[in-house]
Amino acid sequence: MIKEEFIELLIDEAMKARCMAYAPYSNYLVGAALLVPSGNIFTGCNIENASYGLTNCAERTAVFKAVSQGQRHIDAIAIVGGPLEEIDTDEISKDVDYAYPCGACRQVLSEFLPESGDIDVIVARSKKDYKVLKLSELLPNSFNL
Question: At 112, phi and psi to the nearest 5?
Fold first, then answer.
């Protein structure tokens, strides 16, 4: 299980990344921050496109940045998301559900499991309001070679 100080750091970094989101169609901004075994953190935001199929989720943006820098394992990822009107705050309204990774992001994450065999997935509304799940809970029986 990930240490609490890393949880708060990852949530903070995900909140910052969320501010960079490009979401003119949904107005739902998402930020993600992932931790790799070296201790480095990679962030990502959602990037929408008028051709919706070309949209990229925050989680995959962060994973692709990490992999492009030579990382092949992910220990943990924090995800925050909410409507545009809440962008100037460090908290997401309790009226907004946690931002869970979509199926595609879950599958991409499963490609880069750490030596421990599972990734901690943190879904958060703030540094104090979060849940920690295992990727295996969110994606049982994943497709892996």
Answer: -125, 45
Options 59, 85, 111, 115, the catalytic residue: 59
Is residue 74 within 8 Å of 110, Cβ to Cβ? no
Cα 11 from Cα 33, distance rounded (Å): 7
Q: Which two tokens stand for residue 3?
A: 């240490």
Which residues, other chains included, contact 109 with Cβ-Cβ below 8 Å and sequence gap of 6+? 59, 63, 74, 77, 101, 119, 121, 135, 139
Q: What is the pLDDT along the chain (145 residues), one digit of tens a residue?
A: 788 889 999 999 999 999 999 999 999 999 999 999 999 999 999 999 999 999 999 999 999 999 999 999 999 999 999 998 877 778 888 889 999 999 999 999 999 999 889 999 999 999 999 999 999 999 998 887 6
Find the largest Cα–Cα distance for the chain.
Answer: 43
111 is catalytic: no
